[in-house]
Amino acid sequence: MESKIERKEVRSSYEESHTAQAIIGTVFGLMEAMLAFRFIFKLFGANPQSGFVKGIYSATQFFVGIFQGIFSLGTAKGVETTAIFEPGTLIAMIILAIIAWVVLKLVKPRDSNRIEKTDYKANE
Questions:
Q1: What is the arithmetic mean of pLDDT over 1-6?
Q2: Of the candidates 8, 19, 43, 64, which lies 20 to 30 Å from 37 by C-alpha distance?
Q3: How far apart are CA 19 and CA 69, in angstroms?
């Protein structure tokens, strides 16, 4: 006599996709890094005619321009360079970090439903 045992196991699982959070975090991180470069370049009196420095200054001017004039600039003249303490850049970095934090809190991971089915068949 032959008996058949057949069982099916169905399991539902949820996966989360964090792609949007990773992209948003990367974009805000790059913007923060560029603002940090600007702050350091101004503080140490980097040559504004240098291509890289000029690119950083022009790329970040929109963000810093909003906050310029809140506090006055601090300057220190050296033999070859002039160091500038630019509070507008620090304020822009703080505001951008707060915006990034809020946006990342609002963006939820995307849920997807995955169903796994396993069939067991045994002959005795």
A1: 58
A2: 19
A3: 38
